[in-house]
Design brief:
30% of the residues lie in helices and 18% in strands. By secondary structure, the protein is α/β, with parallel strands linked by helices. The chain has one domain: Aminopeptidase (3-Layer(aba) Sandwich), CATH 3.40.630. An eight-stranded mixed sheet has the order 1-2-4-3-5-10-6-9, sandwiched between helices.
Length: 316
């Protein structure tokens, strides 16, 4: 089967500025960060302090400015472990953003006494508005959580966390795998990079991406067990893989998060995972996808809680 050839650029040649500009001009605003994300934040004030950690300024590209916010749980104490939740690294992955906000509005209050909670609900607001994986410079934020980041979305959050001087015990990064990965984003990436696109089978169901250098299989299993109460877990394909990666355990594959510049690798958290919801499944609704993200956070926190309790009382 011939690989799908993207409509921008010349096959085998990486994009230059002209191709990136052509791509940018084709992107359209489809929804509003202000009304779908920012408007939800004031209602969370009883449990969270709202912190602006940066602003994306894309005015030079004919776009706007986007303030970036963290939700910092009340009852913050230095002897409590930090749990970090990130959403919207890829703005098109809707349930990651809305799942982080739903958790903050519903379940978070059950954990504020035992954890310092920090939630970044929408790291890539322009991507959220245009339903896009990249930022306006055709850069993938989720390969950019590195020093001197090429993505302001990744760099601003990473630098802010460094200034806090704390290491999360837990970091859960909320994502989706969609049919558009094969129809749009992987072909576009191959065109941008001057490479050959090879699509993968899109898993039908929820799965996790752990860290191959720190897999924590029991932690991953606890999350899978919790999410299975809400939606189905993706089975491996005929090659025993998910998204082209060998299955590490049921519903879990592993990536080297730090070396790939992934959001999940930007801290030294002991317990780290990336969720992957499949919103295009014929057996999953948008609400179910949001609830799956909430369940994943709850499963992660419940697993880590005994370790968090030992830290609070000064144990090892």
């Amino acid at each position: 089967m011939q690989p799908f050839i993207y409509h921008i650029g010349t096959q085998g040649q990486p994009w230059g500025e002209a191709e990136k500009q052509q791509w940018l001009t084709e992107q359209q605003i489809k929804r509003a960060y202000q009304t779908e994300v920012l408007a939800q934040l004031p209602a969370l004030a009883s449990d969270f302090e709202l912190i602006q950690y940066g602003e994306l300024d894309y005015q030079s590209l004919g776009l706007g400015k986007y303030p970036l916010f963290l939700l910092k749980g009340h009852h913050w104490q230095p002897n409590k472990p930090l749990a970090l939740v990130t959403g919207g690294v890829h703005g098109y992955e809707t349930s990651g953003v809305q799942g982080a906000l739903r958790f903050a509005a519903t379940e978070a209050k059950n954990y504020l006494n035992d954890f310092n909670l920090l939630i970044a609900p929408c790291i890539s607001p322009w991507g959220y508005e245009t339903i896009n994986r990249w930022n306006p410079l055709a850069v993938d934020p989720n390969r950019s959580f590195v020093a001197n980041s090429p993505s302001a979305e990744a760099g601003l959050l990473r630098e802010h966390l460094l200034t806090l001087g704390v290491t999360p015990l837990l970091h859960i990064d909320l994502h989706e795998t969609t049919d558009s990965d094969n129809s749009e984003f992987r072909p576009a990436k191959a065109a941008r990079d001057g490479s050959v696109n090879t699509n993968w089978n899109i898993p039908d169901g929820f799965y996790l991406v752990g860290d191959s250098e720190n897999p924590q299989p029991e932690f991953q299993q606890a999350i899978i067990n919790e999410v299975a109460k809400v939606t189905h877990i993706a089975p491996a394909d005929d090659q025993g893989c998910l998204i082209g990666e060998p299955l590490a355990q049921f519903g879990v594959v592993n990536y080297p998060k730090r070396s790939l510049g992934l959001c999940g690798g930007m801290t030294a958290a002991k317990y780290v995972t990336t969720t992957e919801v499949y919103p295009d499944s014929p057996t999953a609704t948008p609400e179910q996808c949001i609830l799956a993200q909430v369940a994943a956070i709850v499963g992660a926190l419940n697993y880590v809680y005994p370790k968090a309790l030992k830290i609070r009382v000064g144990g090892n």
